[in-house]
Design brief:
This protein has 14 helices and 13 strands. It is of the alpha/beta class.
Length: 408
């Protein structure tokens, strides 16, 4: 799907064709509910892409986004050059992806440069996101969420990406050394200047994100609309607090590393650990998790995958796509066949039993105070059962630990 010949890239396209692509592609609207679906008709068959709103905005993005950490040679995360980058970007667009996420720090700007080159002629037809905050050199003032650094880095990102605006500009992490108001006012200025359309956060604690949102509201500043966070079957810490925070404030979660650095591809077992040179061997420790629990999850992934004639990776992605408050899941494959398989996760519908099995295998437990909040608000408050009876019928509510009469 080379989208440069289409007037707009939206799930509401009817009869839009791509004459530039070697494979002729036609879009047809088949359904519009909470998630819109576009059918991509290829010579080799039919593939569906699904689309969602980007947080609490009117912007529509593909359910899976193309990640770009593997583009460039300075992070040892893929080392893909320009030809490979262009090929992967084209494949993503052909598969219906209209959302690409990068960062200034990925290979110290090289990833943005490669992406900018790959998007020549189609940049205005896609949603482009990048990030700022992490060190770009040995100069300590070229780091952080300060006004000076953000203003300098946004200009650098615009040059490398060969664009005059960024659709989503994200703060890559909390900055304890910079006043929060300084960061938020700077981001607001960028939106008002037209250099940035929307703003997002990444890798914040719940209280940090909540404080930022409240301050934005208090000062009348542009609000965060997304939160890019790590989430996977072996990393479910997001469920403790942040997920419910995002849902309450209508902040869309953008999931990074949904395959836990490649571990959930199912290639690695207790007897066959990741060899040197693989993505997981290179970066797996960056997303720490209990290995034995991980192997149990992979066992279930393989069982479910066999039922669907799918790969474990596709099942793991489908599980994340079904979680609350998720706007898009970022996939960062290094090979074309991996990217094609990842995209197909949007078509995979897991049964309730399969989701429960995956939940059980990956269950991290419920820490305090979340279990107490659920006990008081879900199990012991009779109003919840009256207002939301369907939740109790589906068995998704908290089990009453005190066996109060309301839970009967």
């Amino acid at each position: 799907m080379l989208i440069s010949t289409c007037k707009r890239v939206e799930p509401l396209i009817r009869g839009c064709t791509s004459a530039n692509s070697k494979i002729r592609t036609q879009f047809q609207l088949v359904k519009v509910v909470n998630i819109a679906i576009v059918v991509l008709v290829f010579k080799g068959g039919v593939r569906k892409m699904k689309y969602r709103k980007l947080g609490n905005t009117g912007l529509i993005v593909s359910s899976v986004a193309l990640g770009t950490m593997q583009f460039g040679g300075k992070m040892n995360m893929g080392n893909l050059g320009q030809d490979d980058t262009t090929r992967m970007v084209k494949l993503a667009l052909d598969g219906g992806i209209n959302f690409i996420d990068t960062a200034d720090v990925y290979s110290l700007g090289e990833s943005e440069t490669l992406v900018g080159n790959a998007l020549k002629g189609v940049r205005s037809e896609i949603v482009l996101a990048t990030k700022v905050r992490l060190p770009m050199s040995g100069n300590f003032n070229r780091s952080g969420a300060t006004r000076v650094n953000i203003m300098r880095e946004v200009e650098a990102s615009l040059r490398r990406l060969q664009t005059d605006y960024i659709d989503l500009y994200q703060i890559h992490g909390w900055d304890s050394n910079t006043p929060l108001e300084e960061t938020l006012r700077t981001l607001d200025d960028l939106v008002r200047q037209g250099k940035v359309r929307y703003i997002g956060l990444s890798n914040f604690l719940s209280w940090q994100a909540a404080t930022a949102v409240m301050l934005q509201d208090q000062l009348g500043l542009e609000k965060y609309v997304t939160a890019q966070m790590y989430y996977s079957l072996v990393g479910r810490g997001l469920e403790y607090e942040f997920q419910s925070f995002a849902e309450y404030h209508n902040i869309g979660i953008l999931v990074w590393s949904p395959l836990a650095g490649g571990f959930l591809s199912g290639k690695y077992t207790r007897a066959n650990p990741a060899p040197g040179g693989t993505r997981f061997a290179e970066a797996g420790n960056f997303v720490p998790f209990d290995r034995e629990m991980g192997y149990r999850v992979v066992d279930v992934l393989k069982e479910v995958a066999n039922r669907h004639e799918a790969t474990p990776a596709r099942v793991a992605l489908a599980w994340v796509l079904g979680r609350t408050a998720v706007s898009s899941v970022i996939i960062a494959a290094r090979r074309p066949e991996q990217l094609e398989d990842n995209i197909r996760a949007v078509d995979l519908q897991l049964s309730g039993d399969e989701v429960r099995r995956l939940d059980a295998a990956s269950d991290p437990g419920v820490p305090y105070p979340k279990w107490m909040v659920l006990q008081l608000d879900t199990a012991e408050d009779p109003r919840s059962k009256v207002l939301y009876p369907e939740r109790y019928e589906e068995g998704d509510t908290w089990t009453d630990l005190r066996q109060t009469r309301w839970s009967a």
